[in-house]
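All the exercises in this workshop are built on plain-text protein records. A record pairs a protein's sequence with a compact description of its fold. Read left to right, the backbone structure tokens trace the chain's path through space. Once this layout is familiar, the rest of the handout is easier to follow. Here is such a record, shown just as it appears in the course material:
>
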Amino acid sequence: MTAHADPAISARLQARFADFVQHAALDDPLYAAIAAAVAAHPDWAALLAAAPVNQQLPMLWFAALQDRLLERVAAGERPPLARYYASAGGTSAPDDALAAHLGAFIDAHRAELRARIASGSTQTNEIGRCAVLWPVLQSLVEATGNARIALLDVGCSAGLNLGVDRWGYRYVDDASGATIAATPARDAAAPEIACRVLAGARADFVRSGAVPDIVARAGIDLKPVAVDDARAVRWLRACLWPHDTERRQRFDAAVAVARTQHWPLRAVAAAAAAIVDWLEDLPPDVTPVVFNSWVLTYFDAPLLRRHVQTLLDLVARRGVAWISAESPRLSRGFWPGKPASAADDRPNATSWTLACPDGHGGIAWRLAATSHAHGRWMLCEG
């Protein structure tokens, strides 16, 4: 028997799963089917109440479920639910039996799922975003004339995006599929990331000859993930869409490279203060670049205001370049003048805003690109 959750809380969480089906599940039919089932079962949705309020999101619930499933499969079990998960070797499409298998798995592992939801966070470390970050860094080098960059990833998770200069990139025309530009990986073990460039984009944005020289790099996070910690890496793998084999393979390849590099990651409670401290130790001839991707959405309103104000002050006074990859709605909140993009209404759209010193004690804003949240497509804005 399970305790009954507050009906109002269950209803609120059920609504989030129903909304997920409508707006965020286009990339994975399995998650669409599971979300629909959870939206119809108050006690399943109520498991999410164990998470902090700012983490009560369906993706955390999905990650906890997949993490427990992968753990049991690795232990030699084969729960019927696994037949739907490509990440666990499954090949079945969602069918009428899915809800029953899902319910049986939840009933058998309810305590473990609640514990994972309570302690975990959606720390997806998506290196697909580097396909956009790399040309944004190239454009910054062209604008400043300084190739030497110090890169700080705020909300770094396992720090895989710090390898932006090691991965390979291939940019293809969205209409024809023809390759527009390609940058080889720095070694054979590093993954190649493909990105579709939408019609109307500036092709020269991905054909830049500028080569950023990242002379210092670091990551900060509330709970950074050590790439040598197999259990923590499994959690990050569980945060990925289960059917996306390509994404999973490049994640595993990036982890393997990161284990050889030992990029410095630090646990911090206050990101703004940590950014100020980081600046103190940089060489004087570098352009300091602060980068965040789908991190600020987890800040509550007062913390977000303080964080943004600190960053803008550092841009104006300390010469920092701030690259932010967040939802168009959130980006408009800290840059009210943000122009609309033709891609803003696409599913999982991400605004890449760039704030730099204007040379007169102020801030110059630019919308560098709009992309898919995982870098699958990109519209180069200017």
User: Anything to note?
Assistant: The mean pLDDT is 93. Residues 74 and 223 are 25 Å apart (CA to CA). DSSP finds eleven helices and eleven strands in the chain. The longest strand covers residues 363-372.
